[in-house]
Structure formats: structure tokens, C-alpha cells
Amino acid sequence: MLNGYSPVFTTYSGGLYEMDLTRAAVHRFATMCSKLKPEISGSAKPYLEKILQFKPNFFMSTPQFLYRVATIWEVDNNVFIVPVEDQLGRLIGYYPILPQRCEIVEAGGIIYLRYQFANGEFAAIEFDRVGIMTQYQYSDDLFGEDNRVLKPTMQLLHTQNEGIINAVKNSANIRFLAKVANMLKPEDIKKERERFTADNLSEDNKSGMIIYDGKFSELKQVDSKPYTVNALQMQQINENVFIHFSTNMEILTNKYDENIWNAYYEGKIEPFAIMLSIVMSNMTYTQNEINRGNMITWTANRLQYASNATKLQVSTQLFDRALLNRNGVMDIWNMAHVEDGDKYYIRKEYTEVSQLNAGGVPKQPTYDEPTEPTEPKEPTEPTEPEPGDNLEGNQE
User: Could you tell me which residues belong to the region Disordered (predicted)?
Assistant: First the structure.
């Protein structure tokens, strides 16, 4: 297993991932990214969809894989993803590697990524078969920058924590200030201090009184005040960390609303998801397969943290217009899928899309072609009755 770890920061005991505030920022980002869902487009390697949905390698589930990729990407600014193959050379998974154990080598005109296992053994793979994700990329063609720009903030955070610990210890230990009346040797002062403490400040003193002799000319009680952190300094340190990791206190403490979540998604999670989708697509498919529409896409439910009013509005508006099916509505409300939930409906009121012209819906009326109008006949004048006609019958 590739489980080696060496901190990027070595200026004090521990590294960037060993500080509570920076670890909280990394953990929150990795947790959000672990909820991304894979989608496979195209007909090439369809079996990868189930692999990516549940278990990308022998040791990690999909949330664990995403969490580790996001953590390495945040802490080291670089992460390598190598393919996992079976005995026949078929791609069956993916594994993220720490960049501290990787190096780029060239042999026979081919560039390789060589990485080291925890037991000291090495392995190598062609670099064009590896997925590499970087950030802060400037001075190196392959690797991103380190986190040395965060060094002053990390030292301030470390110093602040040390100062809090020492201040609390000092304020809890010093309770009385005594002035010695006579000149005493250092060892005598030590003995008197121990004697005074044992006689007056121990549990044996049940009276609640302190009595001292002429060796002390003055005795004052020191008020033990709790140490409070300088709010402005602490806020500045926090802001530096938040700016570096593009986060805020609402995200770290789970107090965000839909507006804060949308901003965090747009600025932090979506760029990571897009980069991961392109990187894994390039290492999985050939150029010809990509041209035919094959791709791996990592998506997220952006309405997961929306208010109920927003969810209801989106659900009703998109469902009525056949832009969202019933299972899509269930995803918005974090509910289980239902039977026949993939069908789309549109207002009729309400009818399945494929049945819009069925079930007795009146069709448009049709008309015969109009005929040419005929000229009206001219009225004829009445004729005189012939002799012998039965006028009475005619009158009848």
C-alpha cells in the first residue's frame, strides 16, 4: 500500500495537516468533495460506472477515494492518480498517490512516473497513463507550488497556541507574592517557600487563615485572571487561513445557508470536480473514444443545502415543464427513488410526455376544400294559367 506520509511543513513539530485550523479547512473541503457522484458518458468501458460508484480500488470506497484525492490536492497541491489493472492489463480501478513518493524519470525517450511503496520497493508507469492534478502551477511544468506562502501564518498560529498554553499555566500557578524581610540564601528562600505552601496552601489548612512570621515583611495575593486571546490577532490569523483555502467560518462550523453554499461550490468544489473529470477522462479513454463522446463526469446536487422554499419552487417549476422527472425531485429532497420515477411529465393536467396526443385529446378540426360559388338564378315571372287548368286545385 502507498501509505507513506511526510509533512510539507517542517519548520516546527508537525506539518500543515497537523494544525487544527488548517486541518479543519482541508477536512471540510474533502468531505464536501466525497459526495460527488460519477457519471459515465458513451459506450466505451461501461463497466467502469459501477466501479466508480462503489469501489475504485481494493482499499477505498468511492467517498474515501474522493476524500483522499481532495486532501492530497489541498495539502500538497499535487496528486497523482494511477490506473489499477488486472492480470490481463484491463483497467479495473484508480488509486491516488502522495507526491512525496513520486519522481519523474526518463528512459529510452519515454517519460515515466516512478513511485515508492512503504516497504522501499519502486514501481514505474508511463506518464501519459497517469492522471495528475495540480494547483498554484507556475515555476514547474508538471508540479504545482508548495505551501511556503502560508509559512508566516502557520508560525503565527503555532506561536499563538504556545502563548495561550504558557499564559494559562502562569496564571494558574502564581497565587501569592511575598517579600522577604532579611537577607537569605537561595536555598533558604526555597525552603521557606515550600514551608509556607505546605502550612498555609495545602489541604491540611482547614481554618482558611494564612499566618506568617517576621521573615516576610509583606504578603500579597495575586489575582488569577483568565488569559484571553487577542481577538484581532486571532481574527487576522483565521482570515489568512480562510483566504488560502477559499473557505470561511460558516463552512467550517456547518452554519452556512444556500447562498454561502452556492458561493463555496462555485469557487471551490466545482473547479475541483471539473479538473477531476477531465483528468480521469484523459487517462481512461483514447483520443478517438473521447471524440465519440466518452467521458467521466463528477457531479453534485447543488440544491442539497437550499431552503425548503427554493427546493419546492425548483421542483414544481421544472417538473411541470418536463425538465425534471420524479426521481430528480426525490434527489432534491434527499428521498429514495420511486418506481417509474424516470418518466417525464408535463402539464395537461398532468400527463406523461409520450401520451400527450392520446386519451381523447381533441385534435385540430379539418375542413373540405371550398367549392366555387354558383351564380344565383334569375327569378322567373309567373305565367298565365292555360284554359282548362283546375284553378281551385292550384289554389289548394
Answer: 355-396
| Residue 30 pLDDT grade (very low, low, confident, very high; cuts 50, 70, 90) | very high
Confirm whether 110 is domain-assigned.
Answer: yes
CA distance 359 to 346: 15
- Global confidence as pTM: 0.69
62 with 129, same domain: the answer is: yes
Q: How many domains does the chain have?
A: 3
Element (H, E) at 31: helix 20-33
- Is residue 110 domain-shared with residue 255, that is, in the same domain? yes
Judge if 138 and 273 occupy the same domain.
yes
Q: Whole-angstrom Cα distance, residue 357 to residue 98?
A: 59
Q: How far is it, in rounded angstroms, from Cα 156 to Cα 124?
A: 40
Residue 48 inside a domain? The answer is: yes
Asked if residue 320 and residue 282 are part of one domain, the reply reads no
CA–CA separation, 199 and 210 (whole Å)? 8
- Cα–Cα distance, 136 to 260 (Å, whole number): 24
User: Residue 362's pLDDT is what?
Assistant: 47
* pLDDT of res. 26: 93
